[in-house]
Amino acid sequence: MMNRKDFLKTGFAAGVFLGSSAHTPALVGDQREAGDAGQDLEKYRFHPHHRFSNDELVIEREQAGRPHEGKILAAIQPHSDDIPIFAGGLVAKLIHEGYKGYLIRTTNDDAAGHGTTRAESILNDERDTQAVAKALGLEKVYDLYYRNHNLHEVNMQEITARFVFLIRMLKIDTIITYDPWAPYDNNPDHYITGRAVEAAYTGRWDYPEQLEVVEPHSISERYYFTRRGPQYINRIVEITSHVDTKVRANMANVTQGPGGNSGSLLRRRLAEKGLKLPILGDDDEAADFNYIKHIMLDLDSEQLRLTPSDKHVGEPFGLEWAERYYYRGPVPSKLDDYIKKTAVRI
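Request: output the structure for the sequence above.
Response:
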């Protein structure tokens, strides 16, 4: 007989009942049972690519105002296209809701993207990374410049120490990056970046020599974005109001990735054959925008991004556009409530 834990880890829509979340500020008035969306979730239960964790599934909805004013996030990626592809909606949402944010890139992308030389490719990717940060409303880019696809040759302690310093210097509260424990990721830049971030998360008192110039600082929460393969998912984030910002961030990534000017290039190839896709529009900018929004993020997402459509992710929960994450936040203590209810005077 399958026990409760095994069932929740197997089902795509497991955990459809919602409980309290550690991410309370982002969920006030927004938390509800996934089944309340009125969708038939049975067909999602055995999705071949992703599994929910045994944590309770939380739907994080968009919020009005700036409930996160004063908080700091770091969007951490090994390559110039990772955050725009997988987490552009979440970053845009949190910035809109009051966060100040920074973009950190661990590699120099010297083996990826367009350029007649490696140096030219590095420069092009650096320019794209700056443009992505601007599109998402991020304050600044920090490039660590390790060799592309060679991060496993670097001592991870060195990378971790650099992350710890940035966490302290920027006073980062929230991190968005690759899941360090996702199986079947064959790119060392992905899993080494994630694991170095995870190690930095626990290093509040590590590297005491840094404390002469920066103060200790602890991360409160991490959002690990998802790709193809068995992977824990416990949070659905609504990005409907911010999907166009995500599109424009991907338009900025011309040097590499499935976005950039792919739409206008496709439009020209079709025109040479006397064909046209009406969805691409009548000019290059419209073609690039619509290609990313309707083809890359939706129709052909599995092939282009190795992750399901952002529209399909939201559908069973009544959301037009959404992203999926494995979220790790603070675990609230039950001791204070217990003391309040049971303590007696002596």
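The chain has two domains: 4-256+307-342, 258-299.
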